[in-house]
Each structure stands twice: as C-alpha cells, then as structure tokens.
C-alpha cells in the first residue's frame, strides 16, 4: 500500500501543508511515522478522507442544485473575450481548468480575474492515467 507524506497529501487535497498537518493533529486523518520520523498517511485512508473533504462542500446554503458532481471551487485567473465566445481559466487548488463559453454567459455571470467561481464538470468520457 502506498503511503503519502503530509506535503504530498496536501497537494492531492488542494490545501496547504499546514492545513493537512492541522487535520492530522485533530485526528481527522490517521497518520503513522516511518523509520526516519516523517508522518505518513496510508493511501486508503487518504482516499477515504479526500471523499469526506470533497463532500464537505462550501457551506453555502444558497448553492444551486446540479447533477454535475465534479465541482472545482477556485479563483478566476484569466478571462479572454471574443466577439461571440470567451475563454475562462480557473485555478482550483492544484488544478487549472479552462472553459470555453459564450461571451454573453461571461457577462451575465460578471466573471472577472480575481473573483471566486466554481467550475463544474460533467462528462461522458473521462480518461484516467496511473501515476
């Protein structure tokens, strides 16, 4: 079974190492020490914890209901407007998501660099690579 350091776990969870360390200190995720004293999290424990974190949501009671289960809250890092189409980039933790949508949709949402936004992904074809 693969184990992950606190830093590796933090990157996979999209949080800072300090946050991952605080979660481990609070007992939210189980750790053990290797022979050199580093704290590690078993892969199965990290997988279960990542589901728990992902289901925690944003705590926003006004959130809309959607069938798109893959939500990536983040910050808008770029907006490129064309005459009809637009490209919006969001940095969500370690993930950079790029969406092509209509200019009208960008304007209606008031999307600007620096604001919070959530990219929702629903796909019939998802490819998975083994690390």
List its traits.
131 residues, alpha+beta, four-stranded antiparallel beta sheet, three-stranded antiparallel beta sheet, 4 helices, 7 strands, 33% strand
Largest sheet, spatial ordering of strands: 6-5-4-7
Name the overall outline. elongated
Largest sheet: 4 strands, antiparallel
Helix fraction bin: 25-40%
The overall average pLDDT, rounded, is 86
Count of DSSP helices?
Answer: 4
Q: Element order, helices and strands? A: EHHEEHEEEHE
N-to-C terminal Cα separation, in Å? 14 Å
Note the beta-strand portion: 25-35%
The beta-strand count equals 7
Q: Low-confidence segments, ≥5 residues, pLDDT <50? A: 57-62
Question: From the helix content, strand content and strand pairing, which structural class follows?
Answer: alpha+beta
Estimated radius of gyration: 18 Å
Protein architecture, described:
With 131 residues, the chain is α+β, with helices and mostly antiparallel strands. It has four helices and seven strands. It has helices at 6-13, 17-25, 43-55, 103-109, and strands spanning 3-5, 32-33, 39-42, 70-81, 85-92, 95-102, 116-121. It has a four-stranded antiparallel β-sheet with strand order 6-5-4-7. Strands 1-3-2 form a three-stranded antiparallel β-sheet. A hairpin with a 2-residue loop joins strand 5 (85-92) and strand 6. The longest helix has 13 residues, at 43-55. It is elongated. The two termini are 14 Å apart.
């Amino acid at each position: 079974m693969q184990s992950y350091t606190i830093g590796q776990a933090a990157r996979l969870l999209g949080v800072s190492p300090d946050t991952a360390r605080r979660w481990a200190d609070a007992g939210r995720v189980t750790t053990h020490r290797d022979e050199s004293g580093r704290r590690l999290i078993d892969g199965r424990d990290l997988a279960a914890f990542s589901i728990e974190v992902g289901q925690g949501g944003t705590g926003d009671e006004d959130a809309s209901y959607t069938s798109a289960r893959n939500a990536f809250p983040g910050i808008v890092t770029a907006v490129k407007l064309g005459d009809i189409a637009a490209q919006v980039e969001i940095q969500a933790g370690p993930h950079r998501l790029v969406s092509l949508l209509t200019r009208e949709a960008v304007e209606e949402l008031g999307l600007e660099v620096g604001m919070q936004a959530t990219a929702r992904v629903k796909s019939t074809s998802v490819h998975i690579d083994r690390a």
